[in-house]
Amino acid sequence: MSLLLLRGIASALLAACLAACTAEAPPQQGERIISVAPNLTELLFAAGAAEQLVAVSEYSDFPEAAKSLPRIGDAFRLDYERIVALSPTVAVIWESGTPPEVRTRLEGLGIRVVGIPTLKLDDIAVGLETLGALAGTEKVAAAAAAGFRAEIASLRAEYRERPKLRVFVQIDDAPLFTVGGGHLITEIVELCGGSNVFADATSLALPVDLESVLARAPQVILSTDDGDPVEYWARFAGIAAVATGSVYRAPADLLARPSPRISQGAAEVCSELDDARRRAR
Q: Which residue among 1, 38, 153, 157 is least crowded, i.e. fewest CB within 10 A of its CB?
């Protein structure tokens, strides 16, 4: 057999092999992402990363599609065996809400951890951009971030000149819990022309006693608790918030869950504070 013929056969075989290998090679896949908090699940969907999301935490109930994804427990009781079985490449955690030991455990499993801070309203927009870069969905994430920033800027412009009101934020009643000056809800209250009566507290969330609340004489009470705040505070008719009927139940999902929907919660708070201003006249 001639050398020329051998070279031709070898070339043909190499070409056939390359074609077969190319045909059988799986397409390049994106990240396999797990979310360990409901607000992070919402951020991932809004950033366009839904197709790469392989599992979510308990209570991930928005958007509707999140309800059908596998569950891996909550941030305090993760099912690490199930996580390993799902072979995620990235875990998205909540910087101010996920316990530090969770990050350590996930990294110990060889999973890359991406932390999303949500201490300020703009952190939500930045989080969208971060997750868009992670998932390769930058355009979708950028549009979502721009829309969120525009909604917040609009509220800020509309309410910046409103008369100030003293606001007590109730996030639980047994024990009585509130938020400090560094909490996202405090920024929302200020955005709407209010002043958190516990803004001087350094903790993000803290227990308080009734006496200290009454001493700060709130003109508005905003509650994200499950109970009826009007019934709870009715016995304290001497404080302005109760006397004027300015006690409101705010939707927890729209305020206590730092996600793009918090702009809706902020709009509702602003509306309630305006209602309280009318009542105080």
A: 1
> Which H or E element spans position 4?
helix 3-24
Q: State the first-to-last Cα distance of the chain, in angstroms, to the nearest integer.
A: 105
2 domain residue, yes or no: no
Structure-token pair, residue 86: 């799902």
In this predicted model, what pLDDT tens digit does every residue of 28-44 receive, in sequence order? 358 999 999 999 999 99
Average pLDDT over the chain, rounded to an integer = 90
Residues spanned by the domain of 80: 33-153
Q: Within 10 A of 126 (CB to CB), how many other CB atoms are there?
A: 15
Query: In terms of domains, do 139 and 230 share one?
Result: no
Q: How confident is the model at residue 174 (pLDDT cuts 50, 70, 90)?
A: confident
Q: What is the pLDDT of residues 55-66, one digit of tens each?
A: 999 999 999 999
The pair of three-digit structure tokens given for residue 181, joined into one six-digit string: 């000056």
CA distance 123 to 138: 16
- Kindly give the interhelix angle for 138-159 and 121-135, rounded to the nearest 10 degrees: 170
Same domain, 181 and 70: no
Find the helix packing angle between 38-46 and 121-135, rounded to 10°. 60
The reply to whether 110 falls in a domain is yes
User: Which pTM does this prediction carry?
Assistant: 0.86
